[in-house]
Amino acid sequence: MSRALALLVNPTAGRGRAAHSAGLAATRLRLAGYDVRIEVGTDADDAARRARAAVAADDLLVACGGDGMVHLAVQALAGTGRPLGIIPAGTGNDVARYLDLPRTDPEAAADRIIASRTRTIDLARCGDRWFTTVLAAGFDAMVNERANAMNWPRGQMRYNLATMAELRTFRPLRYTLDIDGTAYSLDAMLVAVGNGPSFGGGLRITEPAVLDDGLLDVAIIGPVSKVDLVRSYPRLFTGTITDHPAYRHFRASRVTVASAGIVAYADGERFGALPLSVESVPGALTVFA
Predict the structure, then answer these.
(1) Options 2.60.120.330, 2.60.200.40, 3.40.50.300, 3.30.56.70; which CATH number does 131-281 get?
(2) Which end of the chain is less enclosed by CB atoms within 10 A, N or C?
(3) CB 245 within 8 A of CB 251
(4) Which of 140, 216, 223 is closest to 178 using CA atoms?
């Protein structure tokens, strides 16, 4: 394996924590004999270009940041068999949770890369794009859209305000789904398609999901009152949302989700307007874990 290593950094991740984490991880990796080059993209497109260039140069690619930075790296590595290293330094870090990586100790995370033990996991693919965690396509996606349009405040408070604003006007959405060839037409608060069990910093919406079973997990929350929606929110952190009477769950290898006017988010990133067709690709990504 090449000893040249490209450390792809999102300096704003984790409210600036990623830049500090990258420095600590780089030092540890250099002491282990890696030729570390820190790559900081000027924007998402530039970071994606740097990731692709590193893979083309046969460099080891390591993402330092949150799930968004992992998402960029995955686009360059999916299907190549080349391993991805992760130094968690974001707010959510759901992929790091999946892989039981140290989320507050960048040097310990670097040690996982140095140990060179790898695991192969599935990815979800939509056209030529990939995601690792969850595709959100309902109330949660609309909150993201609203928050992204807001200039103030910054951080988590912006999402809290966006959630309250969206609750005032939100109504159940009409969905058309195709789940492994079976069609469904229904009203729901949200539909989520998971490669893994959680998104948004541990919200376990697709709780039963397994990273290497070759299947997607589809979660549907049917119409509920706004009060019930708010009261049920803590159950997402424990995974007990699956016991809610409005919760439905399917496993499938391919899913198409359609609903008018909804822009879906995946890995916390703006992914695309519905309808979208998603398929599971077994063993599409190798990771240090």
Answers:
(1) 2.60.200.40
(2) N
(3) no
(4) 216
Span 4-116: which CATH code?
3.40.50.10330
Local confidence pLDDT in tens for the 289 residues of the chain: 569 999 999 877 766 788 899 999 999 999 999 999 999 988 999 999 999 999 999 999 999 999 999 999 999 999 999 999 999 998 889 999 999 999 999 999 999 999 999 999 999 999 999 999 999 999 989 988 888 788 888 666 777 788 888 888 889 999 999 999 999 999 999 999 999 999 988 889 999 999 999 999 999 999 999 899 889 988 988 999 999 999 999 999 999 999 999 999 999 899 999 999 999 999 999 999 9
Tell me how far apart the alpha carbons of residues 176 and 190 are, in angstroms, rounded to a whole number. Answer: 12
Q: What is the DSSP letter of 239?
A: T
Task: Tell me the whole-structure pTM to 2 decimals.
Answer: 0.93
Question: Residue 105: which residues within 8 A CB-CB, separation 6 or more?
Answer: none
Residues of the chain with CATH 2.60.200.40: 131-281
CA distance 150 to 153: 8
